[in-house]
Structures are given as structure tokens and as C-alpha cells.
Design a protein that fits this description.
CATH topology of chain B: Rossmann fold
Strand order of the largest sheet of chain A: 5-9-4-1-2-3-10
Largest interface: A-B, 92 and 80 residues
Oligomer: heterodimer
Number of helices of chain B: 6
Mean pLDDT of chain B: 96
Strand content of chain A: 25-35%
Number of strands of chain A: 16
Largest sheet of chain B: 9 strands, mixed
CATH superfamily of chain B: HUPs
Structural class of chain B: alpha/beta
CATH architecture of the largest domain in chain A: 3-Layer(aba) Sandwich
Helix content of chain B: 25-40%
Number of strands of chain B: 13
Distance between the termini of chain A: 51 Å
CATH architecture of chain B: 3-Layer(aba) Sandwich
CATH topology of the largest domain in chain A: Rossmann fold
Distance between the termini of chain B: 57 Å
Largest sheet of chain A: 7 strands, parallel
CATH superfamily of the largest domain in chain A: HUPs
Shape of chain A: globular
Helix content of chain A: 10-25%
Chain lengths: 313, 248
């Protein structure tokens, strides 16, 4: 049959997590179709059509899908589910919100956050905050899967999928979008940035977090944080890197004032290079860091800012 | 209004989990078990609703072994009114849990179910959404803030880009995120009082639900280890190394 990938987007831009999810889908069941549900989301459909290996883009362009509310997305996906033997979404807050509803209605167990497709019915996924990796085999029948996008490579962008409009499905009328407060930032997006600079409780205040941001800006990096820093109110919740926050795998992850709780490590240990600055030389973060600097961050960060400036960054 | 809170007994979040040598699973022998932290937040939110006079009764449900009654007892000590233990040994998958909860909801008729967004053992993040779908209810997942009205709830949710607010008609399912509240510690008098609160016992068969796992776990392995690296002496040396490695 075929697999269906739910596109992650904001009606303007397609998230690169979608292309990575296509890679996972292609290993399970080809051809791959991508569902773009949104409002005035033509540009997103065009971008999705370029993902190599995608056969068809299904576009449900309707006010009902402007914010991809889970209840309306459930009926939409179910309206076309019959044609697919695998339905996948990136394991983002949106994918996690929507897909279990679809799985329940299809009476099939969902497989969450897969890291690897071992064979079309067998997958690896993290459990216990990434402290163990489970290999699970799905029963015969439809598969519903969320994908940890950072664990898969994006295919090329030389695709030329056909774009087909599909009708909106019934509105269950239970839930409506009421507003949002999105973090605005000129910086790269956390989960797709090449460099991430993260701060922890060691920063001590929201004001001091600017030291991290300054260095991040020199490196054109995204800014992340540990749960402790978010809980303390230094930065908003969407900065959180960790098992229950965002999972990142940049080329460089620079952890500043982060001790390295298991929960945090689960969100960043697949980064290519990890560097850490912490004044406690026993901090667990050093056990995973390729380069560790034992130093007071209040000296090290301004020094790094100056040193980067000197080097023309 | 009645509020239903499902709670799960899991390895305490402070315990370092160990994979069994035969790769059949994680070693649970003689390990401290506690209430799933997200479920504690769910119980706390329900108790606060009761303290504000918005909830009339809090029913706590756990599906698991006999010892899960201790987890229920913890919730009762925090302020829940009564418990329901659905005795099941071994792994019960989220869909089976959702089916049992649906049957309980059909009988208890709560206006709000507050669940943790995920359990810290299997990290599935599915049960609340599945329950909402099976009931045909609306949901507010990863809740950051709840404003409960008579016929609807305004739920602020933690999403990847920041915060989103949805209006959900009641009855509904809400799942908790970390910053919804800070759970209280039960006081000694409340722990004593909780011992007198009733816990009813049932089995999945009472609800006509088969809990045989449908996913087959082939193995559970340690994650790939990252080798420790080198210590550098200065900021300049760190930047040199990162430049050499092509990272900056």
C-alpha cells in the first residue's frame, strides 16, 4: 500500500522534521504521501512536493485546520486512513497531540518516537528518558508511529510530487483554538539549528541568561535551556531541551552551567560535538562532553564573547 | 463536578535504571517505585480545583499490580476522595489503559479527566489523547494553565513554539505538563486520614478489556555510550578545539 506523513508547518514554512519523517516512512511502506492540513498553506504544499521520494501531496486547505487542532485533525486523517498501512508524524508537540487519537480510533497501538526502522514492522524507541532502547515489533495491520526526526536524515529536495486537494472532514466541535503566545526570535529554530548554546540553573537569573544569548548570537546559534532554568523562570518553556522538552542533535551543543541530569542528556546526547562549561568538575555533563572546561561561567562567557569577536565572529 | 485522575506506579524518577543482562527489560527488583511525576501534577491540580470549590469529588484510578494501591493511597493523602485499583500484572499498553479508563468514565461520569502527559517509564505520551478519542471528547494536552468554567475549560498548552490556548467543551480530558503546578507533600494527618478512604478493587475483565500486549518487545538494550572527551584549560583553547573539529 502506502504510508502517510503528517506535515509539520505553520501555514507558511514546512518544518524539516517532515522531510526526516518521510525517510522513516519510506523504510516502512512506499510510496509516501504527505498530508498538508492548514489554512492558506499553498507554500507549504509546494515545499513538501520537493521532498525526494514523495509521490503525492494531499492538501486540506480549510479554516478548520489553521491551527491543526487535534480533534479536527483526527477526523481528517481517519477520512483517508483506509488507503495507508502506516501513518506517521514527527514526534513534535503537534504530532504527539494528534496521532494517539488516530491510533485509538483505528484500534491499533501507537509506537512513539521511533529512532530507527529495523524492518518494516520493527522499530527502536527510547524508554526511561533514553536510558534504555526498546526494540518493538508491531502486530499486523495499520501502524501509527511518531518519529524522533533528529534520528533520521532528510532526503534530497529534488522531488516533484503531484499536489492533490482533499475535502475537509467533519468538525467534532469539541475544541477550538483560542490564542497563542509564540516566542519570537531572530535566531535559528532550536531543533534544526546547527549550533545550540544552552544555559542551566548556573546562570542564576533571567538577566544573566543574556550572557548565553550573546555568545549564541556570535555563533548564529539557537538558545536552549535545562529544565531547571525553565522552572526557575529564566527563559520560556519552549527553550527546554530534554526528554520531556525538545530533543536536539546539532553539529555543536555547548552546555553552560548545566550539570547534566539524565533528563537533559536524553535531549542532546546525539549531538555531533558536545562542549561543556561548568565550575563543578564532577558534573555529569563532562561524562558526555567531547570538550570540557571547568570554569566559572560568569568569567568564561564574557571571555568567549570577546574571543569570538576577536576571531571575527 | 466530579474529576477523575488516573495515576501510574513507576520507577522513582531519581533511580538510575539498569537494563537486565539478558536484554528482556529493565531491572525492577528492589527498586524504589513512586507515582509518575506528571500524575502527581494531575492530582495536585484536581485537589486545587476542589479547594476552590470547583470540583466536588476526586476519584483516583490506577491500573497495575496490587502495590499500585500505595500509589492511590499517596493521591488520597494529597486530597483525593476515593480510589479504584484495576489489578493487572505485567505491561498494560496505553490503548488498553485508555479502554479501561473509558469504561470507568462511562460508569463514573466525571466532567474532567486529568492525566499526566506521559509516564516516565515507557515515555509513550498517548493515554490521555486515546481516552479522549474513544470518548469522543475534546482534549487539552501538555497543560500549562487551566481555567475551568461550567461548560467549558480554557487550557493553555506548552507547544514547541511557545504557548497555545484552546477552549474545550466539557466533559474533556486534560494532560499535565511540568509547569502546571508544584505538587504538595502530603501532611502526616492527611496520610493518616487517607488510610480510612476507600479503595475499590476491580480487574480488566470487569470492564471487558483484554490487556494482552499487542506490541512485541524483542529486546531492551543500553543506549550507545558516548565516550568522555578531553578537558581544556581555557576559553581560547576550547574555541581552538572546536574550530579544529570544524564545529565553528
Amino acid at each position: 500500500m502506502a504510508s502517510l506523513v503528517l506535515a509539520e508547518h505553520d501555514n507558511k514554512t514546512l518544518s524539516d522534521a517532515t522531510a526526516k519523517t518521510v525517510t522513516a516512512a519510506a523504510a516502512i511502506s512506499a510510496p509516501v504521501h504527505v498530508l498538508v492540513a492548514g489554512q492558506d498553506c499553498g507554500a507549504v504544499a509546494e515545499a513538501a512536493a520537493k521532498i525526494a521520494g514523495v509521490e503525492k501531496i494531499l492538501v486540506a486547505d480549510d479554516a478548520l485546520y489553521a491551527h491543526m487542532v487535534a480533534e479536527t485533525m483526527e477526523t481528517l486523517i481517519l477520512s483517508i486512513a483506509e488507503k495507508y498501512d502506516a501513518i506517521l508524524a514527527p514526534a513534535t508537540t503537534s504530532g504527539k497531540n494528534i496521532l494517539p487519537r488516530v491510533a485509538a480510533k483505528l484500534d491499533t497501538p501507537q509506537i512513539s518516537e521511533i529512532l530507527k526502522v529495523v524492518s518494516p514492522d520493527t522499530f527502536e524507541r527510547p524508554i526511561y528518558a533514553g536510558n534504555a532502547i526498546q526494540t518493538v515489533q508491531a502486530p499486523a495491520g495499520k501502524k501509527v508511529i511518531t518519529v524522533r526526526a533528529t534520528a533520521f536524515k532528510a532526503p534530497g529536495e529534488d522531488g516533484n510530487a503531484q499536489v492533490e486537494k482533499i475535502a475537509a472532514a467533519a468538525d467534532p466541535g469539541t475544541t477550538s483554538f483560542a490564542g497563542e503566545a509564540l516566542s519570537r526570535s531572530e535566531r535559528p529554530e532550536l531543533t534544526s539549528a546547527k549550533i545550540v548554546v544552552s544555559g542551566g540553573r548556573g546562570l542564576g537569573s533571567a538577566e544573566n541568561f543574556k550572557l548565553v544569548e550573546k555568545v549564541a548570537d556570535r555563533l548564529h546559534a539557537a538558545v536552549g535551556a535545562s529544565r531547571a532554568a525553565v522552572d526557575a523562570g529564566y527563559v520560556p518553556n519552549d527553550y527546554q531541551v530534554g526528554q520531556t522538552g525538545k530533543v536536539v542533535a546539532p553539529d555543536l551543543y555547548l552546555a553552560v552551567g548545566i550539570s547534566g541530569a539524565i533528563q537533559h542528556l536524553a535531549g542532546m546526547k546525539d549531538s555531533k560535538i558536545i562542549a561543556a562549561i561548568n565550575k563543578d568538575e564532577e558534573a555529569p555533563i563532562f561524562q558526555v562532553a567531547d570538550y570540557g572546561l571547568v570554569a566559572d561561567l560568569f568569567q568564561a562567557l564574557p571571555e568567549m564573547d570577546q574571543e569570538l569577536a576577536k576571531r571575527g565572529r | 463536578m466530579k474529576v477523575l485522575v488516573p495515576v501510574k506506579r513507576v520507577i522513582d524518577y531519581n533511580v538510575k535504571v539498569r537494563v537486565k543482562a539478558d536484554q528482556s527489560g529493565v531491572d525492577l527488583a528492589n527498586v524504589k517505585m513512586s507515582m509518575n511525576p506528571f500524575d502527581e501534577i494531575a492530582v495536585e491540580e484536581a485537589v486545587r480545583l476542589k479547594e476552590k470549590g470547583k470540583a466536588s469529588e476526586i476519584v483516583v484510578v490506577s491500573i497495575g499490580p496490587q502495590q499500585a494501591s500505595e500509589t492511590i493511597r499517596t493521591a488520597l493523602a494529597m486530597g483525593a476522595d476515593r480510589g479504584l485499583l484495576v489489578k493487572a500484572e505485567g505491561e498494560v499498553e496505553p490503548l488498553a489503559v485508555a479502554k479501561i479508563l473509558k469504561a470507568i468514565v462511562d460508569a463514573e461520569k466525571p466532567m474532567l479527566v486529568i492525566a499526566g502527559k506521559q509516564a516516565i517509564d515507557d515515555d509513550s505520551n498517548q493515554t490521555g489523547q486515546m481516552l479522549a478519542a474513544l470518548l469522543g471528547w475534546g482534549q487539552g494536552t501538555f497543560a500549562h494553565k487551566l481555567e475551568l468554567g461550567e461548560a467549558s475549560a480554557s487550557i493553555e498548552r506548552e507547544i514547541d513554539g511557545g504557548l497555545q490556548t484552546v477552549d474545550v467543551k466539557l466533559p474533556a480530558v486534560m494532560t499535565t505538563d511540568l509547569r502546571l503546578n508544584e505538587p504538595r507533600y502530603a501532611s502526616l494527618p492527611n496520610i493518616m486520614k487517607a488510610k480510612k478512604k476507600p479503595i475499590e478493587e476491580k480487574t480488566p475483565a470487569d470492564y471487558g478489556v483484554d490487556t494482552t500486549p499487542r506490541l512485541k518487545v524483542l529486546k531492551v538494550a543500553e543506549p550507545p555510550k558516548r565516550g568522555g572527551g578531553v578537558k581544556v584549560k581555557s576559553v581560547a583553547e576550547l574555541l581552538d578545539k572546536l574550530a579544529e573539529a570544524g564545529a565553528i
